[in-house]
Every structure is written in structure tokens, then in C-alpha cells.
Amino acid sequence: xxxxxxxxKSAGDKGLTDYEAEGRAVRANMEKLRALRLAxxxxxxxxxxxxxxxxxxxxxxxxKKEAPAKLSDWLANxxxxxxxx
Length: 85
Hints:
Layout: H1 11-47, H2 71-80
């Protein structure tokens, strides 16, 4: 094991501190951009006129539902189409 004089850092320690410094810089930039975005959205929200409520459409009478197709009709159509030979 090699011992280093007091106060000297290894190359790995320097890499870690660079990594941590870069991470801090990225987070600071994200905080700044978030604050700017929130301020812009607040200004846009205050300047925008209030949205109108849409009028509800009158409900139409429900359409008559078709009766479900019968199995025998489906089978006949399959035979006519050549699917069941």
C-alpha cells in the first residue's frame, strides 16, 4: 500500500469532485430554468382572458339498437364467402 502525503488527493478523488461539481451546476441551471418557466406561465395565465364554459348540447333521443346478429346468419355468410368449405 502506498501512502500519500497529507493533503494530496488521488486521481479518483479529483474525478469524483469534478462529477459532483458538474452535478451541482446542472441542478442549479435546472432550478433557474424552472423558476423562469413558472414566472412565464404565471404571467401568461394572468394576461389570458378567462376561458368560457362550453354550452352543453341537448341530448338526442337514443338511437334504436340493432339486434345482435344470429350465429346461423353468420355461419351462412361464411359459407357463401367460401370460408367454410
